[in-house]
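Lab manual, section 2.4: Encoding a predicted structure.

Procedure: take the sequence of the chain (431 residues), apply the prediction step described in section 2.3, and record the output as structure tokens. A sample record is shown.
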Amino acid sequence: MYGSRFHSLPGYYGLWAGILAAVPSTLLLVVWSLIDIQLFQHWVRDFYPAEILLAGGSQEIVALAKVENLVSGIRFGEPEPWLVQASEAWLGWAETSTLAKTVVVLGVSFCLGFLGFRKIDPEFRARNAVERIFSWALISASTIAILTTIGIVLSVLFETIRFFQLVPPTEFIFGTEWNPQFEGAERAGSGGGDAKYGMLPMFAGTFLISAIAIIVAVPVGLASAIYLAEYATPKVRSTIKPLLEILAGVPTVVYGFFAALTVAPAIKGIGESLGLSVASESALAAGLVMGVMIIPFVSSLSDDVINAVPQSLRDAALGLGSTKSETTRQVVLPAALPGIVAAIILAVSRAVGETMIVVMAAGLAANLSFNPLDAVTTVTSQIVTILVGDQEFESAKTLSAFALSTMLIILTLGLNFFALQIVKKYREQYD
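Recorded output:
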């Protein structure tokens, strides 16, 4: 075999043997670890007192939790004798399982690695085999992502259908009042006052705050990107770009504090000095701070897209007598437009999904208002409010969160479709 011409580079043969040795044994280790926990939970039932087995349900769950706590070393007082016996048995099973697991997994890894090594010869197409494995791995990852998305959509959709069995869709979609706090009659889940499930106030607040944020973020972010890509010197660019991107790393709760403690009082004071009625928590305060937060999404992505435009286009425009600004405005920006639109849509999605700033700066009042000086709320804030704490999932109040989520998914898909149409319309091919 030595001196023969091999089909693939040496690294592919080593990678082939390494994959055979590592991947199956790792999968075996994961599956074994999942199975033995289930077996231990089943076997430990033999130690439960008869009254716990007869009661079943929550009693068995509590008993299992006590055993697991004792196994983990967590003690609450003096444990009962059966708990001590169960925990000692569990620890014995775990020790045996660990030993067997180690021996079997290492044995499988060694055997498969040896088989992979034995398979190496000049005729073996190791590169093709390795690339086929990576191809299947990438397909599996893509499939998991797609299935996860489908699962999320279906889980939300099923709960939405249950909600619409309690509340008419027309009332939810076209309703102008939102008051799920008082569960009314059978339709809302229990006796009480009339509950209102109109989504328009939340979506009006979402659009209002997002619009203010985009009005702030898009001009500033795009102007910053144009300056950094076309006008700034390398030294200035290396300083300003990281400073802009620091904004993306600031936690949203910090922005929320800043909006609630600094921006909102300042806006209220300025408005009252001008004779305007300004709420202590306003859409304007939340929108302004949110706009600052999403500036890096617009500027950084747009900067990368503008830099990706071929230099030959700039040289051609300048050679024909165009000025720097004319070249940027009439050549560079149209070429980068699809990427810029994608950056703006990403920023819009980030604004629509923001919760913390809205809760702290705009409040939770579901007002159907387009006045930026009023207190409003958004869809995501209401979803969080509804699902906080223990909830009864037979109640329309709880199920309304899933209906709001479905409408938010539809809105996001609509934005993405709109962006795709713009990209298709303005995309051009450059050599």
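Check your result against the sample. Residues 184-192 have pLDDT under 50 and may be disordered.
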